[in-house]
Design a protein that fits this description.
heterodimer; A: mainly beta; 5-stranded mixed barrel; 12 strands; B: 382 residues; alpha/beta; Peroxisomal Thiolase, Chain A, domain 1; 9-stranded mixed β-sheet; 19% strand; binds zinc ion
Chain lengths: 159, 382
């Protein structure tokens, strides 16, 4: 079953996958001295100029601050174009660049997600200010059969 | 620090020159700058090159085709701001008294298509995940402007039209072709709402300048000298990072915070304010950048950039003429020489020798360059 396939993060320093999809998390960092948060995580606080930032798990929901349609992908990009590109503001204060999905089906404890192909027609469902929720995007299959997963965001319809 | 002047400028046309070597590209730019300045090559004491895509020996070859004088030669890469950075360091060496006379040359040969993203292609997850195309990032910021300021998209078309009209008068421009608003709005959608003709092309080209101390200039063509009245440079600070995508930010187009801060420094050093600027050459790889720039430089209130452009206030005969040479958008953007090409245009404007001359004898000009998110700016005075 695909639902039991092993999942690995494309980049564990910024995105950690869990056995349960709903526990997948973006990794940020927090400076206790000046209370600033960062994504991607950093060791040295950009404002205190000292090391000591602590890793934190970031909120899984944020607000869509802007979006664009990418018509042609760059050479090494593993996401098929056209795709939706967006910026999500998290409650911790930072903006996260992300791909955006329109989910048509979720099954098997959230592990199997079917995303609609983005095109000029359904692209107009995106609106700034919408709520967006962290969702995994299987970006490739590793040689050992594991799903290599990247972070992405779904629009929370009707929320 | 002592007073420094620009004595000469020269250009190689921006465009596509696949068969030309770096020596061939730089030869007309440097030789015109030498001729324009009246400075013999043997008097050049130090040289600075601005180039991103170069080979091991190119910086030496482009300088030494004029003679093996044994001078120090430097090469600086700072993306779109490479030769603006080279100019500023050259300025430091002359202003500090280390050298009297310096040559700055920017040159580049670029691939077609979009300027690559901000990370190493194929190596960073951002690229693999499709999160690094610069035009898409620009499209995000453009959408915010359209919504937040109720900026009409026609303002972006108007800016592209204005730039094309300016470029049509510039013999060195990559695209000296007048365009209409309809052509711009109907051009290929790159990343909605961004259209192709709202983006600069990649180009080949070269630009050179010669600077010297005010004192030394008396030996040459001092009557045509243009004074460097102020400078500012810097990289983003922590406050630019909060609420932004951090280290991944690809430029200052996200609100222009760095430009705004640098402008304060620049005006203070030069003893002028935004109202004193008669002509400005600003970093405009996308129509949106011109709007962010004129707001951040204090020419117009925040959010009004688009409407100012629509009202014609940035045209050659407007309140604050910008990018009278066509800007990056239509003159072309070869990265390496772009910064010095801005200096060349302002020098010509202040001398009254520009091909698209600002009326009423402009006295004070400004250059604003952004490269890899870092800013270099100058105030030049007649
Ligand atoms: Zn801190």
């Amino acid at each position: 079953m695909a639902g039991n396939a092993q999942r690995k993060s494309l980049e564990p320093t910024v995105f950690r996958v869990d056995d349960a999809v709903e526990k997948d998390t973006l990794v940020g960092s927090h400076c206790a001295k000046c209370d600033r948060n960062y994504f991607p995580p950093r060791q040295w606080c950009a404002a205190c100029f000292e090391p000591g930032c602590e890793e934190i798990e970031l909120s899984r929901e944020g607000t869509l601050s802007s979006f664009a349609l990418v018509e042609r992908k760059q050479e090494y990009c593993l996401v098929e174009a056209p795709y939706a590109f967006g910026e999500v503001r998290l409650p911790e204060g930072m903006l996260v660049y992300t791909t955006l999905n329109i989910t048509s089906e979720v099954a098997a404890n959230g592990q199997i997600r079917v995303y609609s192909t983005i095109d000029q027609d359904n692209f107009n469902v995106f609106k700034t200010g919408q709520r967006a929720r962290l969702a995994p995007l299987v970006i490739k299959r590793a040689d050992d059969g594991a799903d290599i997963v990247a972070y992405s965001f779904d629009i929370v319809e009707g929320a | 620090m002592r007073e420094v002047v620009v004595l000469g400028v020269g250009m190689h046309k921006f465009g596509r020159f696949p068969d030309e070597t770096f020596e061939e590209l730089t030869y007309p730019a440097i030789s015109h700058a030498l001729e324009d300045s009246g400075v013999p090559f043997k008097d050049i004491e130090v040289a600075f090159c601005g180039v991103v895509n170069s080979g091991l020996y190119d910086s030496r070859n482009v300088i030494q085709q004029f003679g093996w004088t044994g001078i120090p030669i430097h090469s600086m890469a700072q993306a779109s701001g490479s030769s603006a950075a080279a100019f500023r360091v050259a300025y430091w060496t002359v202003a500090s008294g280390l050298y009297d006379t310096a040559l700055i040359v920017g040159y580049e040969k670029m691939a077609r298509g979009f300027i690559p993203g901000t990370v190493m292609p194929g190596r960073s997850h951002l690229d693999v995940m499709g999160l690094d195309p610069i035009p898409a990032r620009v499209a995000l910021e453009m959408r915010k402007r359209l919504e937040l300021y109720e900026e009409p998209i026609e303002a972006h078309a108007a800016y592209a039209v204005q730039s094309s009209e300016n470029a049509a008068l510039n013999p060195y421009a990559h695209y000296p072709v007048k365009r209409t608003a309809e052509e711009v709005l109907n051009s290929v959608v790159i990343s909605d709402p961004l259209r192709l003709l709202m983006c600069c092309p990649t180009s080949d080209g070269a630009a050179a300048a010669i600077i010297t101390s005010k004192e030394k200039a008396k030996q040459y063509g001092a009557s045509r000298a243009i004074t460097v009245a102020g400078w500012a440079c810097g990289s983003p600070q922590a406050e630019d990072l909060f609420g932004g995508p951090g280290a991944f930010i690809g430029g200052d187009f996200k609100g222009g915070n760095l430009t705004r801060r640098m402008a304060g420094e620049l005006y203070e050093k030069a003893g002028v304010g935004p109202k004193d600027i008669d002509v400005a050459l600003v970093h405009d790889p996308f129509t949106m950048a011109a709007m962010v720039d004129i707001e951040a430089l204090g020419f117009c209130p925040e959010g009004e950039g688009g409407r100012w452009i629509l009202e014609g206030k940035t045209r050659v005969d407007g309140e604050i003429p910008i990018n009278t040479d066509g800007g990056l958008l239509c003159k072309g953007h070869p990265m390496g020489p772009t910064g010095v090409s801005q200096v060349a245009e302002v020098v010509k404007q202040l001398r009254g020798e520009a091909s698209n001359q600002v009326p009423n004898k402009p006295k004070v000009g400004l250059t604003h360059s952004s490269g890899a998110g870092m800013i270099n700016m100058l105030v030049l005075k007649r």
